[in-house]
Amino acid sequence: MNIRAMVDDEVSRISEIIDHCRSMEGPMLPILHKVQEEFGFIPESAKQIIANALNLSRAEVHGVVSFYHDFRAQPAGRHVLKLCRAEACQSMGGEPLADRIKAELGIDWHETTSDGAVTLEPVYCLGLCAQAPAAMLDGDLHARIDEHCLADILAEVRT
């Protein structure tokens, strides 16, 4: 498939999503979620297409994409590890665990390991405050994270 055909296909897929969600009240967030579901991230080109369809500026769409942490500008790794950064998790040792994970993976927040295995993202509450610190790996919650749990999580993302 040549470059032009790929671009046309991307525009077509984004347009179909917009057409499907346009009649919803407040359609921008559903459109962005569907685009990310379709592509694994929000392509830069999608921002202008969405803006045009919703009679908004590209800056308004970009502002929403950059405000919400769940939207990505690049494809995620094979695994997505979200670490809770809320106060309860911080007070129960979340910061040293986060530092150790970042050091072991060799990445920082919103980055993906060079082998594409894992993307590390902060999240600001997983609802497990009484079982802090907490993490989510590929949608599965992990509570009361400690050194042993951390070793298991890191082993899982490396396989």
TrEMBL record:
Alphabetical UniProt keywords: 2Fe-2S, Iron, Iron-sulfur, Metal-binding
CC cofactor: [2Fe-2S] cluster
Pfam families the record matches: 2Fe-2S_thioredx (PF01257)
Domain of life of the native organism: Bacteria
CDD domains xrefs: TRX_Fd_NuoE_FDH_gamma
Alphabetical list of SUPFAM superfamilies matching this protein: Thioredoxin-like
InterPro entries cross-referenced by the UniProt entry: NADP_DH_HndA-like (IPR028431), NuoE-like (IPR002023), NuoE_N (IPR041921), Thioredoxin-like_sf (IPR036249)
Gene3D superfamilies, per database record: Glutaredoxin, NADH-quinone oxidoreductase subunit E
Keyword Iron applies: yes
Record-stated family: Belongs to the complex I 24 kDa subunit family.
UniProt-listed NCBIfam families: PRK05988.1
PANTHER family registered for this protein in UniProt: BIFURCATING [FEFE] HYDROGENASE GAMMA SUBUNIT, NADH-QUINONE OXIDOREDUCTASE, E SUBUNIT
Protein name: Formate dehydrogenase subunit gamma
